[in-house]
Amino acid sequence: MLSEERNRTLTQVGPGTPMGELLRRYWMPIAGASELDARPTKAVRLLCEDLVLYKDKGGRYGLIDRHCPHRRADLSYGMVEDCGLRCNYHGWLFDEAGACREMPYDDIVDPASDLKVGVKVKAYPVRECAGLLFAYMGPAPVPPLPVYDALTWTNGWREVVTSDIPCNWLQCQENSCDPVHFEWMHDNWSARLKGSEALSAKHLKVAFEEFEHGFLYKRVREGQPEGSPFWTVGRVALWPIGFFLGQHFEWRVPVDDENTLSIAWFFARVPKGREPYVQKSVPTWKSPLTHPNGEWISSHVINQDILAWVGQGRIADRSKEYLSASDRGIVMMRKRYFDEIEKVRRGEDPKGVVRDEAAAACIVLPLADRAQFVEGLAIEDWPKDRLMSKRMRGHPWCYGQPDEVWADFASAMGIDPGLREEG
Ligand code: FES
Ligand SMILES: [Fe+2]
Fold first, then answer.
1. 267 pocket-lining for ligand 1 (C-beta < 6 Å)
2. Residues measured by CB to lie within 5 Å of ligand 2, the ion
3. Residue 170 predicted with pLDDT over 70
4. Where do the domains of the chain lie?
């Protein structure tokens, strides 16, 4: 349980708020790079700030104030140029550092004017990695982008899936350190939705440990030996807004206090023998949360999670909760957020910020079955594998994978696209 005041401290993310200041110390994924293929500008709201993301004709990414400093027009309707984004109202041109490069009419009537020098828009750096675009909204010096080793794996097919979630980011992130929900939400409730009252293996014990880049949760379920990697290695609640499960990452990106952008990145290694495989472009697609009749989608893993998070309320009222033995990881995470907020107040780098370029270039996260993703599995072994047996029949995590994305996946893997069971 948290007091209302402490709950506000953890959930408010605007500029100048304690958590907003902490989260601004980290690179955050904000979009799939392929989202800018069809249209090179995208309006985004991040940490309560309205911004526009763009890719100019020179291939540079920018993330700048949504509103033009001239007379406040919406720059998400701007025109990209060889260098920068031009406002569609009177043509002022801005580069990715926020500098005003041109004021077309003023440049004609008063070429010597230095008005431009004083006109700057808010601008944040953007980096592309593995089909994702990451932004850093904090103070200088900008730390290097932390590149997790999974993002550098080769011979794989990747995709980015986004969803707009109408609730605060923290209830989403607390789910990253919540092993028992797998048994109930994803196993038992899924069975019940299909008309079965069968119960899956019970959790017998859980453990939580902290490491530099987050927390590990470990579990023993009925019938599972203690030598299992679920107990010896565990899974990663990635600090401060992520979740890492080997074949995929999930990030819960705070849009504002009441909205979260879910960004999931998936990797599928081509079967052994299909190397080399180089993916031309990483597709990005949006997974819907509700059916056309308004009912929440409950058939896919991440859709189930989202349904739970939204059900906790727009901002979960933690003054009314009863934490129990399964919530020890959540208590550890909350304490860490409070402690790191204090570090930022003292002017120190908080947990997980890597300043060393070489160290940031390859961060290896704990993962039991890394060999499967690096070396691949023979296609004959897919039906016996926990993950790949599901992947060859569709997308178990997110509802609504477009047909062309499935077809591209099937072709990369060399599997029959007709195996899909997507409902
Ligand atoms: S409002 Fe943007 S150039 Fe005038
Ligand atoms: Fe889940």
1. no
2. 305
3. yes
4. 38-130, 149-419
CB atoms within 10 A of CB 292: 6
pTM score, whole prediction: 0.97
Ligand in nearest proximity to the CA of 250: 2
The class level of CATH for 38-130 reads mainly beta
Q: What pLDDT shows up at residue 422?
A: 67
In DSSP terms, which residues pair with 235 in a beta bridge? 217
Ligand 1 neighbour 406 (Cβ under 6 A): no
User: Do residues 213 and 238 lie in contact, with contact meaning Cβ atoms separated by under 8 Å?
Assistant: yes
- pLDDT tens for residues 4-30? 999 999 999 999 999 999 999 999 999
ω into residue 141 within 30 of 0, thus cis?
Answer: yes
405-420 pLDDT per residue, tens: 999 999 999 999 999 9
Amino acid (1-letter code) at residue 270: V
Mean pLDDT of the 96-110 span:
97
Any long-range contacts for 404-412 (C-beta under 8 Å, 24+ apart)? 405/159, 405/283, 405/285, 408/157, 408/283, 409/157, 409/159, 409/268, 412/157, 412/268, 412/270, 412/274, 412/277, 412/279
Which pLDDT score, from 0 to 100, does residue 218 have? 97
Question: Rg for the chain (alpha carbons), in Å?
Answer: 23
Per DSSP, the three-state class of 148 is: strand
